[in-house]
Structure to design on (424 residues):
């Protein structure tokens, strides 16, 4: 863990650099290192969209690109032609918006398509300068985009920023998960807390019926988080607009804020803000999950119970509706009607507008509102599994009748359920 210290006349310069680093870090509340075990999982895209989403949530954010050999953050932010200003002996980060500033080697070297051929010491020096010689000012969050793997760049961050937490990005398939395990082992070795895991490219969402086609598999990130007692922060589906926007320097969460993938980023931001202040043990260490039920891919490890949880002896039956009646297609529901049942009778009824139907969002949301049973016409098998993992019983194949009549028939034992409409 310890870095080799310079000798002779270089000692004073190193001490001054250390002091500048500590002064800079003293103005930053939270630091998140975005990591991935392998390339091609969309790590930089996740880092950029999370940074912008945090800024939209009212946070002061810095984005530091330490992928020195393949910096893509300037491209994703549309800042490839920008150059940072210098004020005194400090570099001024480039502003994307009033609440988000960025530094990347891609804006400091006029190299175009030429490779950056640097050995470890030069890379370590550049990263330390990104911290101590950049005028970040007061920040709520510093998001650091690192290259894939566990080399000099993430190791330098771990050694230089003791309070940094890792956010690990994966895709569902096993080849990615195998490399993620190495990243987790790295965090354990350097004693860096893991904020959570994000599953990117988590299926293609059908715009017609809400079915998620698991092109790269499904649920691998959530399953890995459960096994290792880590938080699963959420899943982001594939959206072609992410690629098209990134090539043009248009940040997805700004350009497509009504899409399912954009909503997934928003939900992840809520999880990050909720858990960033909580102590997060390194992988393999003791966590709250050691004394609590095993988490699911629909909720963070230390999610607290909500006020909506039903009292003992109560059942809360949820009916996805369209126009007041049960909808045959779960993904088409424009409302969720919650019926509180006590002693076999409906005692309360409320209609809520659900969040966007994106992978992994509705099951925890229904559970947070206190839902214990959901009755639907059609629902994909993956969605059914996620509801069950969230502690919500699932019934499918119900008729498209008025929502209250569905629950009354359910309570009387006369509800006729047929085949699962739109089963996938």
């Amino acid at each position: 863990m310890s870095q080799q210290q310079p000798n002779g006349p270089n000692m004073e310069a190193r001490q001054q650099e250390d002091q500048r680093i500590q002064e800079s870090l003293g103005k930053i509340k939270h630091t998140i290192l975005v990591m991935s075990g392998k390339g091609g999982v969309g790590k930089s895209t996740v880092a950029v969209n999370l940074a912008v989403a945090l800024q939209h949530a009212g946070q002061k954010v810095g984005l530091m690109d330490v992928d020195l050999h393949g910096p893509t953050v300037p491209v994703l932010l549309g800042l490839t032609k920008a150059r940072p200003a210098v004020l005194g002996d400090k570099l001024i980060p480039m502003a994307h918006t009033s609440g988000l500033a960025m530094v990347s080697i891609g804006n400091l070297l006029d190299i175009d398509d030429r490779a950056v051929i640097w050995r470890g010491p030069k890379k370590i020096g550049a990263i330390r300068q990104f911290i101590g010689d950049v005028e970040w000012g007061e920040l709520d969050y510093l998001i650091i985009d690192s290259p894939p793997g566990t080399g000099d760049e993430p190791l330098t961050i771990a050694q230089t920023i003791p309070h940094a937490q890792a956010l690990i990005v994966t895709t569902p398939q096993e080849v990615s998960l195998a490399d993620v395990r190495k990243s987790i082992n790295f965090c354990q070795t350097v004693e860096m807390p893991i904020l959570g895991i994000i599953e990117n490219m988590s299926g293609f969402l059908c715009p017609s019926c809400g079915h998620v086609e698991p092109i790269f598999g499904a649920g691998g990130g959530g399953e890995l988080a459960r096994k290792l007692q880590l938080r699963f922060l959420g899943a982001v589906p594939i959206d072609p607009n992410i690629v098209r926007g990134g090539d043009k320097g248009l940040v997805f969460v700004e350009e497509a804020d009504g899409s399912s993938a954009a909503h997934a980023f928003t939900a992840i931001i809520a999880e990050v803000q909720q858990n960033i202040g909580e102590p997060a043990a390194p992988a393999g260490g003791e966590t709250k999950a050691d004394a609590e039920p095993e988490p699911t891919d629909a909720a963070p490890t230390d999610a607290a119970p909500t006020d909506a949880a039903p009292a003992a002896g109560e059942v809360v039956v949820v009916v996805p509706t369209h126009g007041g009646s049960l909808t045959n297609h779960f993904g088409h529901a424009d409302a969720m009607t919650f019926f509180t049942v006590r002693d076999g009778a409906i005692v309360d009824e409320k209609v809520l507008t659900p969040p966007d139907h994106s992978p992994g969002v509705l099951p925890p949301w229904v559970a947070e509102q206190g839902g214990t049973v959901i009755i639907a016409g059609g629902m994909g098998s993956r969605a059914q599994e996620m509801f069950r993992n969230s502690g919500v019983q699932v019934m499918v194949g119900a008729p498209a009748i008025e929502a209250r009549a569905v629950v009354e028939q359910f309570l009387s034992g006369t509800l006729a359920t047929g085949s699962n409409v739109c089963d996938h």
